[in-house]
Amino acid sequence: MTALTSAVAAPEVLDRCRGLVLPALQEAVGRLHPWVGEMAGYAFGWCEVGGAPTTATGGKGVRQALAVLGAEAAGAPGRAGVPAAVAVELVHTFSLLHDDIMDGDAARRRRPTVWKAYGTGPAVLAGDALFALAVETLAGSSAGPEALRLLSVALGDLVRGQADDLLLAARPWVGPRRVRPVEYRTTAEHKTGALLGCAAALGALLGGAPPSVVAALDRAGRHLGVAFQIVDDVLGIWGDPAVTGKPVHGDLRERKKTFPVLSALDSPSPVAGRLAALLESDAEPARAAALIEEAGGRSAALAEARRHITAVEALLAEVPLEPAAGGDLRSLLDFLVRRDL
Questions:
Q1: Residues whose CB is less than 8 angstroms from the CB of residue 243 and which lie 6 or more positions away in sequence, other chains included
Q2: What is each CA distance from 282 to 133, 172, 174, 276, 290, in whole angstroms?
Q3: Which of 34, 36, 245, 280 has its CA 20 to 30 A from that of 51?
Q4: Structure pTM?
Q5: Predicted local confidence at residue 254, as pLDDT
Q6: SS3 state at 111
C-alpha cells in the first residue's frame, strides 16, 4: 500500500521491543492481587486458567513498540520509553477486557475471553486493576504530570469511541439516521487511534522530545489507527482466514458497520439499495460481499486507508527523528497497514 521501507523488518522490531518491555510489564502485573494478577496473565497469554504457564500467542505488541520507538526517535535509549510502553499495554488490555464484555465476545485469539473464563464481575475487576496499574506506572515516570495528561486525553477519546461504537451498531442501514463514513472515521480515531498516538507520544515525551515532536507523533498515531482499522475491515470481509484467524465474511455475518459497507451504502450506485436489503435479511454474506465490491466499497476503503497513511508520512517528515529509529517506525507502520492486501 505504501513505499515505506526500513533496513530492519517489522517483525524484528516488534520482537526487540517486546523483549525490552516484557520484564517490566510482568514485574508490574506481579504487584497485583494474586487472583487478579492471574486473570491479567491469562489476558496477556502468559498462563491458563488456574495459573499454569502457557505458550499462547499474545498480541503483536504494537502499542508498546510505538512507545519504545517514540523514545528512540527522540534520541534516547529504548528503555526510556519502557514505562510508557507498560502503561499503554496495560490500558489496551484493560480496554479489551471491558470491550469483550460489552460486545458479548466469547473468544479472543482462539481462547475464551477473560469474562467467559472467569466470570463477568472478575473480568471487570481485572480491567480496573490494569487501569489503576497504568496510572501508577506513569505517575512514577520522569514526566509524571504531563504523561498522565496525555494518557487521560487518550482514555477520554477511547471511551467516546467505544460509546459511539455501541450507538452506531444500533442505527439503521438506510434512511436519515444511517451511519455515514465520516462518523466511522471519528469513531475509529477515538477507539483505535487515540491509544496508538498516545503510545508514540508518551515514548517521545519520556525520551525528552520537544512538544512539537510529541504532538506530531500523537497525530500520526491517530491517523495510523484509522488506517489500521479500515484495513482490518477489508480483511474482515475479503481476508484469508489462514492469515487473519477470522472466518470468511465474519464481519458481514455479524452485520458489523464497517467502512467498506458504509462506503458502499453511501455510494450513488444502484447496487446500494440491493445491498441494504440484503443486510436487513438473513442472506448469505458472500452475496453482500460481492455487492459491496461492485458498489465500490472495497476500493473506497483502501483509498481512505492510503489517505491516512499519507498523512502519517507527512507528519513524520515534518519533525526531526533519530534516523535509525525513524526507519524502524516507518517499517512498523507499513507492516501494520499492508497485511496481505
A1: 235, 339, 340
A2: 45, 16, 17, 12, 16
A3: 245
A4: 0.92
A5: 86
A6: strand
